[in-house]
Each structure stands twice: as structure tokens, then as C-alpha cells.
Amino acid sequence: MAADHPLTLFNSLTRSVQAFVPVHAGEARVYSCGPTVYNYPHIGNMRAYVFADTLGRVLTWKGYDLTHVINITDVGHLTDDADAGEDKMEKMAAAKAQSIWDIARHYTEAYWADVKALNIRQPAKWTIATDYIEEMLEFAKTIATRHCYELDSGLYFDVSTVADYGRLARAVTEEGEGRIEAVDGKRNAADFAIWRKTPAGEKRQMEWDSPWGRGAPGWHLECSVMSGKVLGFPFDIHTGGIDHREIHHPNEIAQNQAFCECGALSDAANSGANIWMHNNFLVERSGKMSKSSGEFLRLQLLIDKGYHPLSYRMLCLQAHYRSELEFSWEGLGAALVRLKRLLGSARNLLELVTDGATLESVRATVTHQKLTPLVDKFDAALSDDLNTAVALTVLEEAVAVKKVDAEQKASVVGAMLSALGLPLIAREELRIRPKGATIEESEIEAAMERRKVARAEKDFAASDAIRDELAVKGVEVMDGDPLGWEYKLG
């Protein structure tokens, strides 16, 4: 592994950028909070997995042996971060009049389809919450005596029994407090459920026997158990959306401290992971990000409108993962155009590229004086807390380089594409016909003729407007295309 650009990452626990130093030499162990499979994921949810995948790819690029775990929450997650109320899974099963197991299976498969469409690599392991119930019970028994107390509604964790509770969130905010439902008998407002008893006279589809009564595990317990069981405490990196930083992850950390009998969080390893990383929100101004809004923004909607799912990955890569990213159809279209130009320019390398190269292997094979500085710039960008926006521009520079050995160029471009999760596919594969597109060829020809006249008269506003009208109908105008096409129907 090259030592000239050490990998540095922003640790939400310390609020600082720090060098990545693996717990186990040469390895990187990463846990990512996965979805609660009660509904389709929206594209804001999927930003977290594009980010986690990019992190994993960068760790591979840097030469680490990666073990990445993503969980599937199929039980225990309530309708918010409360300690009482309806379970998301049970609620959807009742609404659909289906088995909760069928609900979980359907939405897990839908999530996995989105993962594949976004070219997100398969993790080393998918941990399914209901596969770890026995381990959750053992974990809870281990911490119960010193850190928990029992109420009629379940077993609760006393946050005053661990040092620095809430440090990740910089103490529980007023907003966070509003997401914690009051439960009679709780010692502290921030105390949370480890095990939730099934109320008397009720029966859940998912419930198990426990020393505290028949019921189900708390949502926070699941991630502590699965991450520790598979990766061991402490592991290297824990990722999730920034919404987890206020309650879910502080509660995970408290459980980890209790289980490991660790001290204060001045030593990050006591949290269970050396580094906690969070991607920021995807912001959409129309309100369609919410799953309660009917036609909410899920990946399939983008596809139905004629946008290849990789355009969304490109949109995410264009911004730093810690920055808010505003979604708009114009921005998504621009990202798709950029991706098509990039892959179109690299099309002559298709047969030469191999996937998954590391920085070390590229440096061992690439010697051309035009290419080696670009490899260095690309590595510097990714090593700087995953600065994918800069890395993309370096990739485009590498694609544009002329008069260099074709195999060396293919090695560089292929490795860069792989590190960013962009497959080198034919540009034609990025064209998707919008759902319900009905435009006739004669209509296209007439519009193209009007556009030729507008361009000849240097009326570029009219020319652009015609191009945009055609794009909405699934027609891509191919100005300056070296293949000589004037348009392509998606």
C-alpha cells in the first residue's frame, strides 16, 4: 500500500478528520446500518448505500482486505425512534393483510434490486435481524443486571450507567428529544427499550420468549449484536445516514460500552467502532422524498422517467458525502449526460479494462509520464475523506489523455472507474425509454428539422428548447457524436 497519501476519514464521534489505522493490519471491517424492509427504499435512503459502497471501494483501492456487513431490519423498528407504538413491519403487514414474513421478503428483494441497479457491491454478509434473536437475548442478559431495568412495557437501558452518553450527537438535541416517546417509569428521558414486551391481550406476528416476557427486541439492540457478532469489537468503521447520528447510533454505542465494559468515549474504540461515518441528507423540495407521499422518489420512478439508475450514482459522486445534496430532475439529467460523455469517450477501452484493480497494482504497471501524475491526483482525492467530486474530474482527465500506451491507459481508467463504482459499459446501455413513451419517428424528424433551422440561424435558445422537448419524450439528441447519429430514441 502506498504511504504517500494516507487515507483520512471524518469521524463523527470526534468531529475531526483522522488517519485510518486498521484494528487488524491489512484488514478493514465495516458495518453499515441497512434498511427496515417495510416499504420500498426512496433514493434518499439509497444515498447511504452508495456512500458505504464508495467507502468500501476506496478501502479496496488502498489495498485493504475488506469485510463489509450490511444488516436487514425485519423486526423491532417502530414508526419513529420511540419506545412505544407500532412496529413498522407489523403495521405494513396489517395494512397489506399479508404475512409479515412475506412483507419482509418482498421489500428485501426490492432493496437488493436497487443495490444491483446502482452497481453497489455485495457485502461480505447480509445480516438478517430475525436470524440473530438468540444472540440478542444473550447480549441483553449480559448487560441487564448492571445497565437495565424492567417496566411493564419491557426492558430499558439506563443511559446514566455509561460514560459520555450522547457524545456522538453532542448530547440529545431538542429535535431528538421530540422523537423519544415518554414512557411511564423511565428513569431518564433518553432511556431506550432493549426488549419490548407484547402488550397483554395482543399478539404480534413476530415475537419470542425472553426473561422479560414474550415480545421483540429493540431496534438499537439489533445492530450492536450483529456488528459485534460478525466483526468483533472494536471494528474499524460504522456507517449510516446522518439521521442515525442523533439517537440510533448513540444508543448502539451505549450498548457496546455496556457489553464490553468499556470506559469513556475519549477512546473511540470504547464505542465499538474506531470511526463513525455519516452521509448527509438528499434534499428534495417537492416533498416527494417521504414514503407517505404516494408517488415517492424511489429508483424505479427514475427509471420510468427514462433515467438510467447509474445517473443517480453519478449525482451522488458529484457531491461530498458529508454535504447536503439537492435532488432535481435537471440535476439528474446533467449527471446522466456527464456519465454518457465519460463512457462514450472511454468506449475504445472496453475490451482492455479489468475490474477491481488496486492502487498498488496500477502503480506496478503504469509508467507513462502523462498517467502517473493522474494516478497520484486520483489517490490524493479519494484519500482526502473520499473526495469523489475531485476524483471524477481526474478520471475525466485520464480518459482525455492522448498519445499514451492503450493498455496503460485502460489500466488507469478501469481502476478509477472501479474505485468510483462506475462500470465501463457501452453508452447505448445507458439509454432507457421512458415508461409510456409514444413519440413517432415522423414527429422526431420534424423536430430535428426545426432544430437544424434554429441552429443555422444561431437561435440557440430555440435549439436547446427543442432538444429538451425531445429528451422528455425519450429522444436523445446526439450533437457532435463521433458515431454520426443525430438522435437516439431511448
Structural overview:
The protein has 490 residues and is α/β, with parallel strands linked by helices. 41% of the residues lie in helices and 14% in strands. It has helices spanning 43-61, 88-96, 100-117, 133-147, 174-178, 219-231, 248-260, 299-304, 309-317, 329-345, 359-365, 372-383, 388-400, 406-420, 441-456, 460-472, and strands at 8-11, 16-19, 27-32, 65-72, 125-128, 148-151, 154-157, 192-197, 215-217, 235-241, 273-279, 282-283, 325-326, 475-477, 487-489. A five-stranded parallel beta sheet has the order 5-4-3-10-11. The protein has a four-stranded antiparallel beta sheet with strand order 6-7-8-9. Strands 1-2 form a two-stranded antiparallel sheet.
Gist?
With 490 residues, this protein is of the alpha/beta class. It has helices at residues 43-61, 88-96, 100-117, 133-147, 174-178, 219-231, 248-260, 299-304, 309-317, 329-345, 359-365, 372-383, 388-400, 406-420, 441-456, 460-472, and strands at 8-11, 16-19, 27-32, 65-72, 125-128, 148-151, 154-157, 192-197, 215-217, 235-241, 273-279, 282-283, 325-326, 475-477, 487-489. It is 41% helix and 14% strand.
